[in-house]
Amino acid sequence: MVRNDYDPITHYMYEWSKPVISLAAKKGFDVDNVGPVVTKKEILSRIEKLSPDFLFLNGHGSSDCFCGYENEPVICMPDCGIFRGKMVFSRSCDCAKGLGRKAVDKHGCTAFIGYEYEFINVRLTTSELTPMNDYVSRPIWETSNAVPTRTRVTACQRLAES
Fold first, then answer.
1. DSSP secondary-structure letter at 79?
2. Distance from C-alpha of 131 to C-alpha of 110, rounded to nearest angstrom
3. What is residue 80's three-state secondary structure?
4. Rounded to 5 degrees, what angle do the CA atoms 82, 55, 138 make?
5. What is the CA radius of gyration of the chain?
6. Based on the number of CB atoms within 10 Å of its own CB, is 140 exposed (0-12), middle (13-18) or buried (19 or more)?
7. Domain that holds residue 84
8. What is the rounded distance in angstroms from the CA atom of residue 129 to the CA atom of residue 143?
9. Nearest to 152 by CA among 4, 61, 23, 16
10. pTM, whole model, 2 decimals?
């Protein structure tokens, strides 16, 4: 799991990823946690070394790049071969539009789930330091967290059955 933490939206991502990590641990999955400072060198080397079958990316993005700490491009179009044989959930703006499509269509990515437009978080400014207590944004994060928590096992089971 990749978890940036350097501005209000990435802080929300960082904190709201904790329930996903807890559930994965309960179910016996190994979770490699990259962050809160995410760099291109670190993320690419960890993906190559560990070869996870599922990646959960939290951070800013564009149609051709997933960004790490302070918006540093970390996985861009030339790098998307790193997704070969993997399922990816990218909680970042626009990444599904270009990066995800290329990863699936040209590089054998098993599945790329993400956002083709902006990922928008409506929030209480009084809760920015405690995102889990923000009742305004809670439905956004619970819905987004449903992707890795409710589809992971089903997707793996379907792959194993085919």
1. G
2. 32
3. helix
4. 145
5. 15
6. middle
7. 2-161
8. 21
9. 23
10. 0.87
Contact 69, 38 (CB under 8 A): yes
- With H, G, I as helix, E, B as strand and everything else as coil, classify residue 118: coil
Tokens of 14: 């960082």
d(CA 11, CA 129): 8
Helix, strand, or coil (residue 33)? coil
Give the total number of structural domains in the chain.
Answer: 1
Distance from chain centroid for Cα 101? 16
Write out the chain's pLDDT in tens, 162 residues.
899 899 999 999 999 999 999 998 898 888 888 888 889 999 999 999 999 999 999 999 999 999 999 999 999 999 999 999 999 999 999 999 999 999 999 999 999 999 999 988 889 888 889 999 999 999 999 999 998 888 644 444 444 444
d(CA 116, CA 97): 5
